[in-house]
Amino acid sequence: MEPSDAKLILGYFSGDEKALEILFGRYFKQVYRFAHSYSKNSEDAEDITQKTFLKAWRNLKKFDQSKNFKTWIFSIAKNSAIDFLRKKREILFSELKNTDGENMIAETLADTALLPTELSEKTEKFRNLALAVSRLPQKYGDVITLRYEEYLSFSEISRFLGEKLNTIKSRHRRALMMLKSAFLHQK
């Protein structure tokens, strides 16, 4: 049986560095996926994830151990993502020209054509679902992402987003209805 988050935190405070490594390792992939859902970019998601765990480490002594650690770390991740994206400056495509006026990366851009026909139907459905979720208003997309990608309960999502439990459940139902409607209109 794996030690609880609370036991790992106590272990770390008692001098066991490995306990912190286990604790952070437990949530690393989930925080990264969450950061990626905000940034839509692997490099930015890595930066956000790194900032999240650095802030968690620096503030671990302030963590109220009567609370849920997973909710706390995701709150830090959300704030880190918002801060990061707020500070990130968009680079205009025109700024990428060399001294001859040619765009330095135009020929190296990835092909955005449709997926090859060899991909399975399951992969195509997943892509369509991810696209539909990304098109939801942020407050609905957050609930879907936290529920189905991060496996948070409605109570955890409620605490994480600072919203009432019934509000979260209502947003979840509305988000599912919006997704269903989006798929019905595709056919």
UniProtKB/TrEMBL annotation:
It comes from the Bacteria. InterPro entries: RNA_pol_sigma-70-like, RNA_pol_sigma-70_dom, RNA_pol_sigma70_ECF_CS, RNA_pol_sigma70_r2, RNA_pol_sigma70_r4_t2, RNA_pol_sigma_r2, RNA_pol_sigma_r3/r4-like, WH-like_DNA-bd_sf. PROSITE patterns: SIGMA70_ECF (PS01063). Residues 128-179 form the RNA polymerase sigma factor 70 region 4 type domain. Transmembrane segments: none annotated. One of its GO terms (biological process) is DNA-templated transcription initiation. Residues 23-89 form the RNA polymerase sigma-70 region domain. Keywords: DNA-binding, Sigma factor, Transcription, Transcription regulation. The keyword Glycoprotein does not apply. GO terms for molecular function: DNA binding; sigma factor activity. It holds the Pfam family Sigma70_r4_2. Belongs to the sigma-70 factor family. ECF subfamily. This is RNA polymerase sigma factor. It comes from Candidatus Giovannonibacteria bacterium RIFCSPLOWO2_12_FULL_43_26. The lineage of its organism: Bacteria, Candidatus Giovannoniibacteriota.
